[in-house]
């Protein structure tokens, strides 16, 4: 009897830009697995029906991207701790017949820093720029690694304050004007905003106040070298780009769906970088 190929997917609206099929397709080929990973463009009002039909469609699970992460959080039967805290689901799978949801963004963020800046989790003060959904995942990852002083900076202070209220202490909210003062004792600076994406000009951010041992990371990966990372590099600071977060967050889902834990290798990174450069 022929082996039935395992099917997984990424759903979003739009979803044509997603690099997830490239990542998972590479791993499927690398491990010789009979399976597929496809894009599914699902409009917001069609998401509940799409999720109800997953099992009947032969899917073992999949990924959820913008704008469906919060809706998927509400629609699944069970959520892991990260998804509960972050309030969003990006990975779906079946367990005992139930559709389960998890969030691997925090894992991906931490694993990327583990690879690019070993020892980053030694503590100290973290400053996070932005207060959107990505910031929730970053703050969760920071708290999991023992950071107890996390400054959340946003142009709209009320949004930073709302994020602070979601966490168990150790966080504080600040307006953008506070950045120069906050940087003076920052050990890890994280940009979670869309500033600098696709070559867009980034608001001026003077990094002169950062300690020389500070690490600067940007979750944006298009372009790989954002204005923030370029400014940090000119100062001789350690930098970590955002591509590794995308690659590492994909690992847990692939393992759940296809039964093999894949590795994020230099070759995989080269493949995705080449694809990004095609669109640059």
From TrEMBL:
Xref: InterPro entries: Aminoacid_DH-like_N_sf, NAD(P)-bd_dom_sf, SDH_C, Shikimate_DH, Shikimate_DH-bd_N, Shikimate_DH_fam, Shikm_DH/Glu-tRNA_Rdtase
UniProt binding sites for shikimate: 18-20, 65, 90, 105, 221, 249
Keyword Amino-acid biosynthesis part of the UniProt annotation: yes
Pfam families linked: SDH_C, Shikimate_DH, Shikimate_dh_N
Enzyme class: oxidoreductase
MF annotations from Gene Ontology: shikimate 3-dehydrogenase (NADP+) activity
Lineage top rank: taxon: Bacteria
Domain Shikimate dehydrogenase substrate binding N-terminal residues, every copy: 10-92
UniProt KW Ion transport keyword: no
The protein's Enzyme Commission number: 1.1.1.25
Swiss-Prot/TrEMBL catalytic activity: shikimate + NADP(+) = 3-dehydroshikimate + NADPH + H(+)
Pathway: Metabolic intermediate biosynthesis; chorismate biosynthesis; chorismate from D-erythrose 4-phosphate and phosphoenolpyruvate: step 4/7
Positions of NADP(+) binding: 81, 130-134, 154-159, 219, 242
Domain SDH C-terminal stretches: 242-264
Keywords carried by this UniProt record: Amino-acid biosynthesis, Aromatic amino acid biosynthesis, NADP, Oxidoreductase
Active site: 69
Annotated Quinate/shikimate 5-dehydrogenase/glutamyl-tRNA reductase domain residues: 126-194
General function of this protein: Involved in the biosynthesis of the chorismate, which leads to the biosynthesis of aromatic amino acids. Catalyzes the reversible NADPH linked reduction of 3-dehydroshikimate (DHSA) to yield shikimate (SA).
Assembly and binders: Homodimer.
Record-stated family: Belongs to the shikimate dehydrogenase family.
HAMAP family: Shikimate_DH_AroE
Name of the protein: Shikimate dehydrogenase (NADP(+))
Source taxonomy: Bacteria, Pseudomonadati, Pseudomonadota, Alphaproteobacteria, Hyphomicrobiales
Encoding gene (name): aroE
């Amino acid at each position: 009897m022929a082996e039935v190929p395992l099917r997984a997917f990424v759903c979003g609206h739009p979803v044509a830009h997603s690099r997830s099929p490239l990542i998972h397709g590479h791993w499927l080929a690398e491990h010789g697995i009979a399976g597929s990973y496809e894009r599914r463009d699902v409009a917001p009002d069609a998401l509940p029906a799409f999720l109800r039909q997953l099992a009947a469609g032969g899917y073992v699970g999949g990924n959820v991207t913008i704008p469906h992460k919060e809706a998927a959080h509400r629609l699944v039967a069970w959520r892991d701790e990260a998804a509960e805290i972050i309030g969003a689901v990006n990975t779906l799978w079946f367990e005992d017949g139930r559709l389960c949801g998890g969030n691997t963004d925090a894992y991906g963020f931490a694993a990327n820093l583990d690879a690019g800046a070993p020892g980053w989790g030694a503590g100290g003060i973290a400053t996070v720029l932005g207060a959107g959904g990505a910031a929730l995942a970053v703050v969760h990852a920071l708290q999991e690694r023992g950071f107890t002083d996390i400054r959340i900076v946003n142009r709209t202070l009320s949004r930073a304050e709302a994020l602070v209220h979601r966490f168990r202490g150790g966080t504080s909210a600040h307006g953008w004007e506070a950045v120069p003062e906050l940087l003076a004792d920052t050990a890890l600076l994280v940009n979670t905003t869309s500033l600098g994406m696709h070559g867009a000009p980034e608001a001026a951010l003077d990094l002169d106040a950062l300690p020389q041992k500070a690490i600067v990371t940007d979750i944006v990966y298009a372009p790989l070298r954002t204005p923030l990372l370029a400014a940090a590099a000119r100062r001789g600071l350690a930098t970590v780009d955002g591509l590794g977060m995308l690659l590492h967050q994909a690992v847990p889902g692939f393992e759940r769906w296809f039964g093999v834990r894949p590795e994020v290798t230099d070759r995989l990174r080269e493949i995705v970088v080449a694809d990004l450069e095609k669109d640059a």
